[in-house]
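Good morning,

Attaching, inline, the backbone tokens for the sequence recovery test we're adding to the shared suite. The designed sequence is right after.
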């Protein structure tokens, strides 16, 4: 199996053998050229495919399927949204069948997932290994937005329209999360008080910093030049134990805990994973963050006994690896 992770600037490729072993243990990237339009992007993926086979000395005849993941929004079948998408701004992308185009180009079956779902699938398989099909999990990945996915019985829950697992836009209770006088945060999707409106980089810039900088008028980040610039610096301050930054991350961890409380009551998964920039930090900080998420996830005693909380591993490779796992699952065992 080959896994191809398509991103805004780079593709990342991996190979998974039939025994479930990854033959690549580092990032192998080439430019994705998505801004040049679909034709160039498909060619770049074909090049990544050929390149990774050469690098791992894998004969083309042994490849049974290819996994592709991209940022959304796209349908479950890998057709880019007709309204366009942040990463696919050129008009030619609108409604483009990305999966189908790569399948024709490579002459091999291509299995599609969005990047959040692919990373969720990878985290699930790392945690449960051969027992993956017996377990369920939820992954929340904090980036510019809040992505992730839901895995049930080892497989990605896609939904009727391919829009399951949009965890960022699930409403969470704000009572006890917001500080005194803090306005209800608004998400880019138009909702007030959903998970992404607190737990994302966008939320730090648009909702959390404007409030907290007002409470800490002498904070250095008041002089960062712009909220966008300041938002990117908050993580570093958090790692150094800065009081205001810790309040911001505590609110984010609470939001994820509350999101997981909803999951616990809704589908009672075996594992809860947290990923994204917030865990690509010092071990001490990310352990504190995960513990705070856990503290705010209100599981029943029976659930707490069996549930696992963990970080999404190898985040930069998780997309390509999850895409490859999906491809492996798609072919009947030999
Ligand atoms: Zn939203």
């Amino acid at each position: 199996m080959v896994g191809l992770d398509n991103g805004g600037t780079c593709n990342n490729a991996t190979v998974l053998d039939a025994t479930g072993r990854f033959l690549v243990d580092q990032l192998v990237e080439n430019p994705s050229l998505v801004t040049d339009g679909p034709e160039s992007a498909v060619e770049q993926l074909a090049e990544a495919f050929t390149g990774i086979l050469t690098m791992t000395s894998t004969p083309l005849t042994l490849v049974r399927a290819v996994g592709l993941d991209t940022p959304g929004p796209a349908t479950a079948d890998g057709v880019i949204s007709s309204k366009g998408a942040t990463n696919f701004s050129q008009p030619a992308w609108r409604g483009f069948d990305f999966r189908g185009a790569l399948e024709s180009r490579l002459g091999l079956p291509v299995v599609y997932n969005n990047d959040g779902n692919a990373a969720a699938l990878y985290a699930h398989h790392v945690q449960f290994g051969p027992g993956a099909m017996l377990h369920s999990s939820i992954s929340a990945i904090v980036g510019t937005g809040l992505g992730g996915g839901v895995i049930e019985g080892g497989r990605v829950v896609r939904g009727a329209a391919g829009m399951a697992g949009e965890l960022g836009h699930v409403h969470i209770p704000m009572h006890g999360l917001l500080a005194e006088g803090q306005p209800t945060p608004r998400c880019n999707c138009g909702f007030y008080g959903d998970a992404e409106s607190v737990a994302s980089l966008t939320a730090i810039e648009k909702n959390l910093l404007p409030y907290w900088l007002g409470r800490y008028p002498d904070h250095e980040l008041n002089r960062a030049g712009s909220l966008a610039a300041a938002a990117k610096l908050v993580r570093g301050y958090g790692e150094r134990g800065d009081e205001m930054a810790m309040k911001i991350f505590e609110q984010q961890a609470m939001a994820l805990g509350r999101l997981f409380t909803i999951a616990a009551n809704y589908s009672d998964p075996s594992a809860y994973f947290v990923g994204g920039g917030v865990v690509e930090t010092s071990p001490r900080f990310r352990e504190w963050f995960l513990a705070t998420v856990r503290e705010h996830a209100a599981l029943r005693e029976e659930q707490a006994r069996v549930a696992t909380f963990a970080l999404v591993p190898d985040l930069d490779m998780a997309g390509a690896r999850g895409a490859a796992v999906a491809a492996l699952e798609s072919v009947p065992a030999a």
